[in-house]
């Protein structure tokens, strides 16, 4: 059986794609090139379907949520707050999994940040 090798891309609708791309670069350090190609660090990826009524993604209209691995969650959240980003106050600790925090991008997409632990 053939299998997928990994996530090959994540695509977002945006009113202003250039501005949203700049936000990801300036706030999260996502250094994609002019074609959107980004060489990420090796690490785990979680694929997990959620119940349709979940509120975990924030807005009920958001059908998917992007999760980024981070080295230091507290430092990333402080960086985002310093740049005026919409950062959730709460964080979550999951034994054996790590720590989580959330930010909403200027397009209204809730993003999860994960410090593996």
From TrEMBL:
It comes from the Bacteria. It holds the Pfam family Glyoxalase_6. Residues 6-116 form the VOC domain. InterPro entries: Anthracycline_SecMetBiosynth (IPR052164), Glyas_Bleomycin-R_OHBP_Dase (IPR029068), Glyoxalase_6 (IPR041581), VOC_core (IPR037523). PANTHER family: GLYOXALASE (PTHR33993:SF5), GLYOXALASE-RELATED (PTHR33993). This is Glyoxalase.
């Amino acid at each position: 059986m053939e299998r997928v090798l990994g996530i090959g891309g994540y695509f977002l609708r945006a009113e202003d794609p250039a501005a949203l791309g700049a936000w990801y670069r300036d706030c999260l350090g996502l250094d994609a090139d002019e074609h959107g190609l980004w060489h990420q660090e090796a690490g785990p990826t979680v694929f997990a379907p959620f119940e349709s009524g979940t509120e975990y993604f924030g807005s009920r209209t958001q059908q998917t949520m992007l999760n980024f691995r981070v080295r230091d969650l507290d430092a990333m959240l402080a960086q985002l707050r310093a740049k005026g980003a919409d950062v959730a106050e709460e964080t979550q600790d999951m034994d054996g999994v790590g720590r989580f925090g959330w930010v909403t991008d200027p397009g209204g997409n809730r993003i999860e940040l994960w410090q593996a632990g």
